[in-house]
Amino acid sequence: MADRTDSGNDAGALIGTGDKSLFERVGLWLAAGDWHYTEGSEGNWYSMQVSLECGSVRTIIDTETREDEEIVMVYCIFPVRVPEARRTQVAELFARINHRAILTSLQIDMADGQAQVLSSISQTGSAINDATLDRLLSIALRFADRAFAPMLSVAYGDVTASQAHERILAAAERAASGVQLQ
Question: Which parts of the chain are beta strand (E)?
């Protein structure tokens, strides 16, 4: 991601919600970061394809504003559907991963097998700024990148949810200790 400041704000000041809507501010933030995106027809979400190490995900940034609350939801939708016969196992993997997750979660639609990451934030009393948007998108994309291969191994391989989760934990432990496997 490119470095950017608060959508043209002076000295990092926030654009007040009276000046621009949350949706408009997110659009300015996306434009400042040179993201290639489209606007949703309802005027409250953006969509873009994002390439990760593991593949590409459709990313949707949805906005909602209530009286004094701003909400941003980032969805990273995996490009494959989980086969019906493996959805329960993938749901178990997601539950294991979600157990310790903060600000984000993995979700699966049991009816059609669509799997996705959801990261969201709600803020009251002040506007959501660019730094918060940067963090939220970064968290969602990193989570999607780390979860995609384990999800595929359970959905299309002969790996159990428990085995896939153990592999994730082992990889995280190696990364924390600085050990790289060749």
Answer: 38-39, 45-51, 56-65, 69-81, 104-108, 114-124
Residues counted in the chain:
182
Q: Tell me how far apart the alpha carbons of residues 45 and 71 are, in angstroms, rounded to a whole number.
A: 12
Q: Which two tokens stand for residue 137?
A: 């998108």
* Whether the Cβ atoms of residue 141 and residue 50 lie closer than 8 Å to each other: yes
Termini Cα distance of the chain: 28
Query: pLDDT tens digits for 55-85?
Result: 999 999 999 998 889 999 999 999 999 999 9
- Angle in degrees, 0-180, between the axes of helices 161-177 and 130-156, rounded to the nearest 10: 130
Q: How far is CA 79 from CA 87, 95, 161, in A?
A: 15, 20, 20
Per the confidence metrics, is the pTM higher than 0.90? no
